[in-house]
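To fix ideas, we close by showing one paired sequence and structure record:
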Amino acid sequence: MNKNVIYKTQGLGKVLKIVTPLLLATTYCLYKIFMAAINIQESEGWSIFELTIYLQTMLILATLDFIIRFVFKRKIFQIWVIEIILLIIGIWYFLNFIIKL
């Protein structure tokens, strides 16, 4: 096998091990928290509601990401599959909750 192919695969594996779906979702929640904090005066108090929702979501996602990475230490494929399934279930549950309101 060509050494360049092995090197590129290992580099991609390192990136996929660091950047996981739950980490991306956690980063999005952090972005929304910062945006809500910046716009707190203009929203007349609605940003506080957004802050609490996204802060709780971010903590849950970060905890789940840590637990999954701890259990499946070097199994990148299993980590990605489990985290994608958890995100799909979470989005489905959230949308069903919103629709019932």
User: Anything to note?
Assistant: The chain has four helices and no strands. Residues 36 and 43 are 9 Å apart (CA to CA).
